[in-house]
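The methods section describes the discrete structure representation at length, but only in general terms. Each protein is reduced to its one-letter sequence and a matching series of backbone shape codes. I believe one specimen quoted in the main text would settle the matter. An entry of this sort, consisting of the sequence and the corresponding backbone structure tokens, reads as follows.
***
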Amino acid sequence: MSVLVNKDSKVIVQGFTGSEGTFHAEQMIEYGTNVVGGVTPGKGGQKHLDRPVFNTVEDAVKEAGANVSIIFVPPAFAADAIMEAADAGIKVIITITEGIPVKDMMKAKTYIQDKDLTLIGPNCPGVITPGEAKVGIMPGFVFKKGKIGIVSKSGTLTYEAADQIVKAGLGISTAIGIGGDPIIGTPTKEAVKMLMEDDETEAIVMIGEIGGNYEAEAARWIKENGNKKPVVGFIAGKTAPAGRRMGHAGAIIGGKDDTAEAKMKIMDECGIYVVQSPADIGETMKKALSK
């Protein structure tokens, strides 16, 4: 089994006919992802990229059997797009949009909390199960099939970790870019948990950033549950000054526990193989697996 997306996923693109939606839908289709259509209100009944366009997510679910959605809707309307997908019964909602107002995300997260679905993002690169489905904006050629899961707050470092793993002669089961905003659907711990429970994943790469406590929570959960699979960890932002935002909206040192050093110390104490540079991920993973 794979995590979140696979060859059986029926994917729709919300914001299908816009420039971002069009470009990345083309890339996903080219990769082999089963994109069954897209949603652009007012354009229902048309064809785009040789796929049907629907007015609503509900129509896409009824007529195309969609069960995964990827959102390229502008920030002001993206939270509504998440809630619409949730109402329509979509099981995996992947939100690429960056800059959604925090107030809107608070509303959307509260709205979906009792529903049977997984929200990834916002402000994320998406999810890829190599050779089966790419639901996101990552460069598919970097990811080769294998048994190492990746959970990352950083988009670019997701690709770097995948490249390191492949260069070490290993491959990836599923890579999950959870997103770098202060409020996201699936925190690090929940994503790690999915990969821990996945039969096809033998080890995990966990990439975090300064700010928040997601990585510490995940590390403690890994230790409490017996370190069942080797985990290699890296935290970006060692040189970031306190109080200054680094890249993502959620990447800011607010207290002593938010620093890269503090997080790496906790991870190390919890039995995670902590690396000082992303360049060491592949070789460290090889050593961890050999033990």
The chain has a mean pLDDT of 95. Residues 1-122 form a domain with the Rossmann fold fold (CATH 3.40.50.720). The chain has two domains: 1-122, 138-290.
